[in-house]
## 1
Amino acid sequence: MTSEISKNTIIAKNTLLLSIRMLIVMFVTFFTSRVVLEALGVTGYGVYSLIGGLAFSFGFFSSSLSNATQRYLSFAHGHKNENEVKAVFNATALFYIILGGAILSIGCIIGPWLISSVTIPESLVNSAYWIYYCGLVSLTVTLTATMFDSVLIARENMKVYAYLSIFDVLGKLGIAYLIYITTSSKLIAYAISLMILSIIVKGVMIYFCLNRYSECHVKLHWDKKMVKELGGFIGWNGFGTIIFTINNQGLNLILNFFFGPVVNAARGVANQVNGAINNFSSNFLLAISPQMMKSYAANDMIKFHQLFNYCARYSFALLWILFLPIILRREFILHLWLKNVPDYTDIFLLWIIIYSLVDIYINPQWFAIQAIGKLKMYMLAVNTIFLMVLPISWMCLKIGMNPEAVFQIMVIDRIVAIIASLFIIKKYIVFSISNYIIHSVCPNILAITISLPLSIIVNKLIPQSFCGLILNSLVVMTVCFICVWFIVFTHSERRKI
């Protein structure tokens, strides 16, 4: 019982630390985005979102390696085997070094072709090259440092993780003001400054891990068995992240083809708002994923099932409380936040938020399948469904549908993928889909059914002003919290809290 309380305390403390971090990061990110958009202009911001995205699209293996490293390090810690921890880190370090060099080389070679294939103003072509290659260097540094990120997460040391994130976002605020006062070559100055900042932040993290954790001292020893096992896991992880990258950048290119860089700017702004709020839920997920891995490794299936069932239910509830005030007053918030709001930003933000609320249910399923280690069927099924977004979106835009149709298609596609993944997980563990829906999905649907109409009434009664925004947000969040407290949480969970 004491051990159970200790584990829950670690999750709670790490979630709190990461949430405080995200409050600071969110506030500064919103402020930075306004300055950057004003400094670069809508077209310049759209070009940066598009070209920067192309550069970072080469980072598809970063996520694969990170997932694999976290999974195997958490398992090794679950087994309480220090030698296994060192073996995992050494094997993944080889992958990181080899792939980092390969991505940098390939990215440099095909960069000109990628840049020439998108629609950007002639005057910004030179800036686009700087954005692309600075982004590629940042990506390589980030990729190499990801194994140290995984060490911090597996060891559940979220304090350092939080401090570095705050330092990073404050650095970006400084960079925003730098380009604001720069009179020429703003895009180039922005790209170079972000590259330097990423090198500094990741360098500090690497230095800390090397001095704190013994497994971080790399010995380039080729452990054939470990490399083979990791290689299979990374391969299927890589397949999934390649599909995600193709989808994400493919949608950017499709929107660029049909509507130009202004729509890319709208998507970039909407993604920033969504990402900042979404990270609150991600903090809880980040704190809980090592515990899921360790519980499965220790064959503690009761704890594993508890975390699996709680994970999506709590994450969705948290997102709903945070998102609803934004949904109701998104137009006012966007005009208050930005001087020039790109066309379509309002409707993009609405559908991206809806997508994020749906997508939250895929996360515990992903953690579960990683812990089980049977990725093949899951990756083939879920990513085949996910890949259908591109051709369907193209056809819909080709026949004249509005750009928001892309996000509506993503929502429907994600629901289908979530249902399919539940049936796949059921093949590997004793698991009732009907019980999962009753206990994890239905409470949130009921909370929405009650809180949404009440919040809409409140929103209509409170005036559209800055003070009205604050009051409306507080009242709506209170309504949502009360519904979540009495509907989503059980009696025993309320007593524990």
Note: The CA atoms of residues 269 and 389 lie 21 Å apart.
## 2
Amino acid sequence: MTDTKKPIIHENHDWLEAVVEEIVEPERPIIDPHHHLWIARGAGDYLLPELWGDTNSGHNIEKTVFIECHAEYRKEGPEHLRPIGETEFVTAIADQSDVGDAGQARVAGIVAAADLRLPTEVLQQVLDGHANAAKGRFRGIRQAGAYEANRDILFIKPRQPADLYLDEDFRRGVRTLGAQGLTYDTWHYHHQNRDFLEFVKSVPETTIVLDHFGTPLGVGPYAGQRDEIYQQWRKDIADIAQCPNVVAKLGGLAMPDNGFGWNLGDVPPTSDEFIDAQSRYYLHTLECFGVDRCMFESNFPVDKWSLSYHVVWNAFKKMVMDCSEDEKHKLFYANAKRVYRL
């Protein structure tokens, strides 16, 4: 069993720099459709200098999409409007990215936070607030469905109730997003995939972005069950892929809660080690969803607790080396541009 009580965040770059690789296909344009920004979360700030430190590490990252992470909410005012503070915080950073040197990644889209269970007129106030704060970058909402009864075993603590996906008020809110051309992002755990499947069938008019493969857990009671969990996960992903309104992000499996233990190693994994351990999740999802409904994501800086930015994108490129140029462009750029309207 992985010992989650041990330190899992490396406080300097020396550990990551123990593995440095030649960049695969360095000229390939990339949109990174999933990263966070925050002040002082465990390993410290992750702001524009830190983001650029990663996006400038060798790959051609042109644009990025920020995904909500409960950062810098307003401290005052109505509770339902406080998440707009996060959008204000990210917009200021995005403005800085727009006037940066040529070749620097631009924060081009924002997926914000809202409680989609709010009455429609109240929810609309939140959506309008995000749109006004984002200065044209607001693309959707993530209210992650993640729930785990054994919450204390997890490094990243989920916030939602067990039945969020089944809540009719929540589903109404997701339909509101679709009616306005906004996306709904989510992440949850492997044992929630069946509830997620029923949910996405109920909201066919909304584009749903599934983050992190439905997060197969590998810690606590799930440690030592990787193959059993994988077999059920395979079936669930195949069924979810039958819903044409769902898009899959390929990434985010290097979180400590996935249980691969890389965050505890003396050195981080190489791209080849990453592929050996995880490619079956990527290739199965790609086979089920097809190249038109998948996009690679970094999930940084969360996955940075396990490996470096240039290594993870090397792994992604190696995994699809046999794809055509058109297919690669979709997976690394065009699909993210289309889904998030960048």
Note: Residues 271-289 form the longest helix (19 residues).
